[in-house]
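Duplicate of #3305? Posting structure anyway:
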């Protein structure tokens, strides 16, 4: 009799335990299926008339990230590059001086929102997440993300799959679209973050990383400058439209930028500067 009572109670306990486990599992599964709240933050709108402030101060304050050949210091210490030419031309058209604020790419947006400068002219790719923080102009350029490989450390690698494995380290500049695309395309490789692309490509040429991802034509230029050490074995990994970025809530400034892009596109000025900086390597000797 005692054994029957004992086993009956044990059976009830096990049944209750099974039901509880099933219920908890169902709740957890439902929670996983529910969409998680977005971590994207919307920046506040600005009430400043930026164009009026630029004309009043006599200065166009420009945020740039030092990425070759968009913006870099040449061997004489002068700030040069495609974006530098664009900013100088825009300032001349506005009838004001230009003032540059070189920062690490990862600080471009935050420094703009902090009103350190008026505009980002740095080949900034248009993304939905960034559009929550800034207003983009129409595109004025297109960026192609390219992978540069260290020949010795990636001998015979000709496909994405050959780089997507343990033991491969791929460098990218922190905060750029290269970081996102690198993580998505090469989930099995180690993605190493850099503050500037000069340090990134220095490590690539010194056999410290297997590959680097950056906007063309930087990888191609490094391969040209370091034959037998660096190569570009893959087609572009992604293509993004690049635009100017300003603080949210200033449609008059965006309208001016779009009009400026249209005018300088029609008269061929932007394309001429593009050809100089992106289709040739005449500037390589200035590094």
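Output from current build:
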């Amino acid at each position: 009799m005692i054994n029957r009572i004992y086993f009956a109670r044990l059976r009830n306990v096990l049944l209750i335990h099974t039901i509880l486990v099933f219920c908890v599992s169902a709740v957890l599964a439902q929670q996983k299926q529910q969409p998680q709240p977005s971590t994207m933050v919307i920046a506040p709108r600005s009430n400043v008339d930026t164009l009026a402030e630029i004309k009043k101060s006599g200065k166009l304050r420009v945020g740039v990230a030092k990425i070759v050949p968009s913006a870099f210091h040449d061997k004489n210490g002068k700030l040069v590059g495609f974006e530098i030419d664009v900013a100088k031309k825009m300032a001349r058209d506005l009838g004001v001086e230009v003032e540059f604020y070189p920062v690490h790419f990862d600080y471009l947006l935050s420094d703009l929102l902090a009103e350190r400068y008026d505009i980002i002219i740095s080949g900034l790719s248009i993304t939905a997440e960034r559009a929550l923080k800034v207003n983009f102009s129409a595109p004025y350029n297109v960026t192609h993300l390219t992978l540069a490989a260290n020949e010795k450390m990636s001998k015979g690698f000709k496909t994405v799959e050959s780089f997507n494995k343990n033991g491969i380290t791929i460098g990218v500049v922190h905060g750029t679209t290269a970081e996102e695309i690198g993580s998505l395309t090469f989930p099995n490789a180690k993605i190493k973050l850099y503050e500037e692309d000069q340090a990134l490509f220095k490590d690539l040429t010194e056999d410290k990383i297997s590959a680097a991802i950056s906007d063309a034509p930087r990888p191609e230029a490094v391969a040209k400058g370091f034959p037998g050490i660096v190569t570009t074995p893959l087609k572009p990994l992604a293509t993004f439209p690049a635009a100017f970025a300003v603080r949210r809530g200033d449609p008059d400034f965006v309208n001016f930028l779009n009009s400026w892009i249209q005018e300088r596109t029609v008269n061929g000025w932007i394309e001429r500067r593009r050809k100089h900086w992106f289709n040739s390597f005449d500037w390589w000797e200035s590094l």
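Confirmed duplicate; merging threads. The CA atoms of residues 21 and 27 lie 10 Å apart. The first strand starts at residue 59 and ends at 65.
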